[in-house]
Inverse folding.
């Protein structure tokens, strides 16, 4: 038996949400069960998951000591109930629609509620992957998307699939298409943009450099954009990436005066506030597999296109008046 006294920084939370943070090793199913059978009490009395905690509350926990131990990040998937939006799956790969707000890998804060852990939990629970039988392989992501950008993320379920897919991505044989909303109307309405980008790791920003600026640290970034529609002072733009540089779409468009709606890093907050958007309107909505040469176990993917229809910011865009504001 252990007791936890609620302090000021803990107050105001629902009981279940507090316990998930305080006891990350306790599976959600057991958490609910222990509350129901009174192995978790609040101030010595029966409690409910929706109870709001107050300063001075004492939680009494009649649970095993193992659940008080901080879980190994590599084993965090064992405590997760997977939540995935699966676009496509076969024996080799898994394509997931990552919603904005979720990180793909563990971040600097040590978050374990990540896309890769949800994928591991899903594959583990359905019996497609057993880490106790594997010598070294774990399911892995083949592309990354920023936390507040949504879209399709590719995961390899086998070592062969991981090797081939990484190679095909490097050879630009996996075509990636994004939708975004930008301030203004890009001109011309369709073009290929090529820039040299320099990353500042200290604040995780990227800028366009010219001439010899940045030296060997600058990286070439190239993409094609096309204006699909304009409503008022906002344009819906499709971008096809030819390279995969950090923040590439955001900085290349912003440098030409067309920042993404909601982009606090490369846009203007005053303009963003007018539309009530707090994060960049950017979605990796389509993938096209255009393999050349041998593709081994990934042959069933060749020539196929996968597209997400539920883009969170599209209803907002189509609600805008067609004429200028």
């Amino acid at each position: 038996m252990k007791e936890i006294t609620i302090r000021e920084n803990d107050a105001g939370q629902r009981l279940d949400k507090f316990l998930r943070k305080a006891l990350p090793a306790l599976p959600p199913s057991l958490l609910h069960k222990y509350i129901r059978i009174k192995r978790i009490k609040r101030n010595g009395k029966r409690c409910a998951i929706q109870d709001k905690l107050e300063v001075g509350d004492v939680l009494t926990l009649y649970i095993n000591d193992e659940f008080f131990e901080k879980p190994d990040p590599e084993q965090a998937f064992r405590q997760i109930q997977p939540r995935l939006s699966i676009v496509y799956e076969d024996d080799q790969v898994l394509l997931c629609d990552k919603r904005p707000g979720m990180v793909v890998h563990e971040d600097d804060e040590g978050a374990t509620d990540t896309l890769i852990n949800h994928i591991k939990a899903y594959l583990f629970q359905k019996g497609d992957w057993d880490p106790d039988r594997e010598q070294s392989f774990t399911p892995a992501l083949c592309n990354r998307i920023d936390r507040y950008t949504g879209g399709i993320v590719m995961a390899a379920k086998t070592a062969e699939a991981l090797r081939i897919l990484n190679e095909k991505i490097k050879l630009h044989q996996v075509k990636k298409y994004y939708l975004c909303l930008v301030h203004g109307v890009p001109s011309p309405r369709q073009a290929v943009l090529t820039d040299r980008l320099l990353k500042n790791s200290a604040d995780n920003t990227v800028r366009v450099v010219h001439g010899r600026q940045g030296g060997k640290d600058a990286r070439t970034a190239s993409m094609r954009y096309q204006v699909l529609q304009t409503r008022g002072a906002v344009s819906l733009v499709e971008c096809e990436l030819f390279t995969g540089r950090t923040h590439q779409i955001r900085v290349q468009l912003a440098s030409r005066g067309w920042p993404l709606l909601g982009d606090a890093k490369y846009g203007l907050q005053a303009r963003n506030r007018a539309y009530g958007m707090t994060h960049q309107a950017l979605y990796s909505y389509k993938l096209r597999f255009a393999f050349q040469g041998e593709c081994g176990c990934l042959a069933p993917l060749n020539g196929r296109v996968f597209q997400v229809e539920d883009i969170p910011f599209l209803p907002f865009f189509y609600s805008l008046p067609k004429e200028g504001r």
